[in-house]
Amino acid sequence: MKEAIQSFLEQTLVPVLKLGFDPWHAALNALPPSVWRMAVCLYLLVGCLWTLRLNREFVFRGAPDAAPWRDLRVWVALLVVPYVAVYLIF
Known about the structure:
Layout: H1 2-29, H2 33-52, H3 56-59, H4 72-89
Helix pairs in contact: 2-4
């Protein structure tokens, strides 16, 4: 059964996905890895900055109180740091 599903997906889904992803892969392979790293870091940092700009009332909606540990903006910033560090170091 597993082989039948894998075969079906390779015959139907892979050709469709290749149409969309092959041009991206060709474009990214032409760039040096440092550009990829910076692009990923910028992507993560822009998302982090966007969450930091969220309205305080929106972030604490439904929370019993506005304790600092409930602030999701801070949690997002803290969770993004390891990802950015990994991309910058490795």
